[in-house]
């Protein structure tokens, strides 16, 4: 018989078993099953690969875990959650790190490869646990799509009436095997606690990203003892109404980015004042009746044709402002549009809409926002002239009028308080969760600290030395003891001064 050499999956399993053995509270809590699978507590894992477009695939261990759809009816219908474990590279501490994805509507398993490098340091001696929130990814996903595959983030601007009709069709289709009232934040919080108990680990280190910061704060409020540390990246305070302040936050972020162009002589000389060009291009697009434009899809290369419209511009400005490297190209794109060259704007806008539509489970997003936020939404007259105006509020109000909800948890808007160690991190130019949100959350936490990454945008856990600072915080459970001076080396990319990029 030929000797069988161990495969990569075998070596990963052996390494993880050894690491798990170092943290298991009892000998039978961790190990290898007769089938060669890994077991931690009551959950059995098998080798898998996590992948997403534009990122390197990551080897992991995956499992499915059943939970009640309605936590108040534990004997009722059950749904399966998709879970992944990224093993520590050495003997593991007993408290894993849990990454909670954003959106709402993003899959943790699909999002992780994009930020995997940020978790490299913390994985030296801790496992990273991923749980797709119910309604996302592999956890009974709630995707809203038409028969032709079109989704809520399609290439056509939708009126509130059209979005309500779309939502009603989605509601009716999903309701055949789903109670849509049970897919909001507190349902995910209770799922996480059931997973922790099944794994038989004493505590969790929570890492919330964007909307995931809301989940992390709510978990730490309800389950204080099982919470060892909390990292909040792109902080959404519990007081924040999702969607209500997006318009004004974007205006402030664009003002800052455009001022950076005006401060660079080459940018203004070659491209003009971006604020004035935005006003001119916006007026032209809102007037309508422009000729159709042919352009190539930036990913597929397919030739497409659309009539330039204002929502193409609004999508581009909103999504590009998330990251300063992308925002640096906005003066160039506005200049091109001001010269009646709309193809770059159309191509980038289409790519963004396709990408967002593929990542977000719209039904889960509605279950969250309609349960927790829409009652606090109201059109703001001060936003009427902004780029987004009150469109986001009006669209959510229209959709939520047709979406089933359960009552919001009592005290949901109350801040996280107490002695839990919390590290909040923000980007200086974040257009969605600006740094002032981080300050609001930390104000209530005596063991909390807020770090602002210079020149950065939304989600900064992977920026510069932040992965090392994050790992040090988790190791020590002490935010104040971190030396964060290395963040001073971060800076935003300079604004483009032409098609060749920025001035040398």
UniProtKB/TrEMBL annotation:
It catalyses: Release of N-terminal proline from a peptide. Pfam families: Abhydrolase_1. One of its GO terms (molecular function) is aminopeptidase activity. Keywords: Aminopeptidase, Cytoplasm, Hydrolase, Protease, Signal. It is found in: Cytoplasm. Residues 1-26 form the signal peptide. Residues 96-460 form the AB hydrolase-1 domain. InterPro entries: AB_hydrolase_1, AB_hydrolase_fold, Peptidase_S33, Pro_iminopeptidase. PROSITE patterns: PROKAR_LIPOPROTEIN (PS51257). Belongs to the peptidase S33 family. This is Proline iminopeptidase. It comes from Luteimonas granuli.
